[in-house]
Amino acid sequence: MREFIEGSAAVARTIRMCKPGLISAYPITPQTHIGENLVQYIADGEMECEFVNSESEHSSASIILGASAVGVRAYNSTSSQGLLLMAEVLYSIAGMRLPLVLTCANRAVSSPINIWNDQQDSVTLRDSGWIQFYGETNQEVCDLHIQAYRIAEDRNVSLPVMVCMDGYTLTHAVEVIDIPEQEQVDRFLPPFKPLHVLDPKDPVSMGVLYDPASYTETRYAIHETMREVLEMIPKVSAEFKEIFGRESGGLIQEYKTKDADKVIVAMGSVVSTVKEAVDEMRDEGEKVGALKVITHRPLPSQALYNSLKHIPQIAVLDKSISLGAAGPLCMDIRSVFQGKDASPKISGFVAGLGGRDITKDTVREIFDRLSGDQVSDQFIGLDVEQVINAT
Amino acid sequence: MATKHLFASGHTACSGCGQSMAARLVVDAAGPNVIIANSTGCLEVFSNMYPRTAWEVPWIHSLFENPASVASGIEAGLRSMGKLDEIRVIAQGGDGSSADIGFQAISGMFERGHDVLYVCYDNGAYMNTGVQRSSQTPFDANTTTTPPGKKSFGKKQYQKNLVAIFAAHGIPYSATASVAFPTDVQRKVKKALDIRGPKFLQIFVPCPLGWRHDPGLTYEVARLAVETGLFPVVEYVDGELASARSISDPKPVEEYLKLQGRFRHLFSAPGGEEEIKKIQAIADGNIRKYGLVKEKPKKEPEKEPEEKPKEEEPKEEKEVAELKKFTLEELAKFDGKEDRPAYIAYKGKVYDVSEKVLWDDGDHLGLHEAGKDLTEEIGEAPHEEDNVLELPVVGELEG
What we know:
Structural class of chain A: alpha/beta
Largest sheet of chain B: 8 strands, mixed
Distance between the termini of chain A: 55 Å
Number of domains of chain A: 2
Strand content of chain B: 15-25%
Oligomer: heterodimer
CATH topology of the largest domain in chain A: Rossmann fold
Number of helices of chain B: 16
Radius of gyration of chain A: 21 Å
CATH topology of the largest domain in chain B: Rossmann fold
Strand content of chain A: 15-25%
Distance between the termini of chain B: 72 Å
Order of helices and strands of chain A: EHEHEHEHEHEHEEHEHEEHEEHEHEHEH
């Protein structure tokens, strides 16, 4: 059913249809509406679920960890400092192979404090063992949540999934979304049946100590699973299309790249802006395109290579930066071409930090600058006056 | 072995480890229908190493500071599955996890009312990382981060009163126990698990390695901590003090201290005797506060209140006899600051709190100041007015 609905409310509605047994959350802007909507469903008797208001994000992450360990499907949402406070718990969840789903409403990281959107928070957690999806629209964000549980809880996977949605740009945006029927979700997402749970009838120890003789193998096992996840994601996306009738999810999405000589690679809502600029520039006769990274971890190296190998000039647009190095996505895209025959020019641009708007003009500027020398860490829209005054 | 334990032998704890003894007492008392969430620490490390485990019950370890939160999730998860009637949940950690890094998570779990028993194995330092100071390290103890030296006698601060802090959360049960009294430990675990809601149990567990005592003396050291009054064994029910294990004949603290290398410097360094007196004052304070020493029949006709250390007695009695009249202005001068005496007024009488450990510099837990009429505040305090009535009276408040 098509509804005019706020992004956060749509995510809450989607999570309700995924029927978690436990939700824990801690307030942080701009994620807060998701939890508020969910707990209202419970208060109104429209959803049967335990809701635990934790005293910190560290604890809310630990609470869903505990619930998952006894075999309960659980959910959490957070942003920015909340995600960073959870960081060590998120590593622990992945290491214990607990198939949880968490929404990250992307927001800049302190200091200075800034409540607006960029992707520094979730990108910082890319090495944690969580599968990471980035949604472009609220429709995609909702669909990715349903697919997230399906992938996470597959017994061959047993890894957690983080669904990232740009704070405000998506969380607070009201747009038309096709809300699925409960029956469709039930058909797509079977009940959670974990391999091992904490149960007195069959006692197991979880989270035990691994010494140097065995720790490496646990990391290798997750890494190997990630490789298998790359093969599974397109299949799950195809199955989703069969039941829900629309393309959603997957590893990457090409947009007018086939004959392009310039392509911008990006993640999240900014891809919509890039696509609009591409349309305009195509009308003007320029051969430009866009490539959306939906699955950031595991990194779909082969798919990226296949889609980009014929593009002479590639721009990577990062809404985060590995300070002292370059944009993290830019480094990823370059790694895809390591030791390969094709070696396109790959330039890295950093934009949209702390909520600064990325407009079609920003996108045009990136395409323009792509004609020059290869660059790695070019800040777009930098106010040089401010930098000089501050030093 | 005739009895099957739920905490198997073959683990790698040090010989004489009080924590391993207590952990077995706890899980055996809890029985097989329990799930345990453990913090990082000695117990977590010595009880398992892949692929072996000593735990015969479902057990999980995630991080140092989150066993209370993991247990909250387990409890709420079991509730969501309708299994909370069959399965009990225990969270456990050492004193560093419980009193320091995981303190907030326990407070959160208790405030939310989860049906979980939290067990703190208190050996008074971060033993797993090599004997560093925690907030539960006792006054003057030598740890690797509170070393004695020319300008130090060891740890400078007193411990937090964990059991009272958690009792103040209004939870139905908060208690202490000592591994020296195994029956009492198991009785309290069973009692706690029969209560629905949040419960706290702090168990005193000597660490021969960190305390540097003979591993054969674990029980002896634990027993002396109780018998000196340094570790009061108490129970709070619904936030009120409900019981305290009495001491028939309090031992001087030296007997406890001299068995342990962590206090050895107090017996050799100049000024050590003064420090030992301060430790004796802590024990005496506990004895008074919890009424640990039952009055002996022969002393009954002589004195009514609990006796205080000898030489202070006459001074107090003299002051009582004078019954000086205080105005609020005069009372304000006795604020305990800069070595001035610390007096408080309660229901028209003025009491001397100068010697109370919890009234250092005229400040009571950062909540109340000396030199004031605290009649209203004491009505709201977690302890009974008995704590006040047993204080030395120095006068009456006018008006």
